[in-house]
Amino acid sequence: MAALTSEMKEIFSKAPVYPLATASKDGMPNVAPMKSVWLVDDETIWIADNFMKKSLMNMQENPYAAVYVWGPETKGCLQIKGDVEILTSGPDYEKMRAEVRAKSDKYPAKSLIRIRITEVFTCAPGEGAGDRLL
Questions:
Q1: What is the Cα–Cα distance from 115 to 70, expressed in whole angstroms?
Q2: Which residues form the Pyridoxamine 5'-phosphate oxidase N-terminal domain (predicted)?
Q3: Mind listing the domains of the chain with CATH numbers?
Q4: Beta strands in the chain (DSSP E)
């Protein structure tokens, strides 16, 4: 696993939306914007599955994902890759579900996507674009 630095966590905290990239077992890509996203610790991202279809199916077939982190206020750009677990019960799932449902009961919080960070790359333009940071 890879642990985010304090600078990376600052970038993560300022992103307005988190595009989640997945691929089927045959390599068909999918990307979808996510809003219910938490950096739980230096090595773990949680994403609430409220309305996932293709992304969820892809992660069931191929348990890897990438999260793109950028926004006008981030002063940086990261691509974070990791191993995926899909949880539908247990303390972490219940904690996520409570947080989502506290915002609005219109969000079903069907499952918790837990991503264990394995790699981080820069996606800022210029020299070094695409370089592995962790």
A1: 18
A2: 4-122
A3: 6-122 (2.30.110.10)
A4: 18-23, 29-34, 37-41, 44-49, 64-69, 78-87, 111-122
- CB within 8 Å of 68: residues ≥ 6 apart: 18, 19, 21, 31, 77, 78, 79, 123
In which residue are the tokens 């348990």 written? Answer: 63
* Per-residue pLDDT tens over the stretch 39-79: 999 999 999 999 999 999 999 999 999 999 998 888 889 99
**Residue bearing tokens 């090595």:** 43
Measured distance CA(124)–CA(134) in Å, rounded: 15
Pick from 49, 51, 46: nearest CA to 115:
46
Q: With a threshold of 0.90, does the pTM exceed it?
A: yes
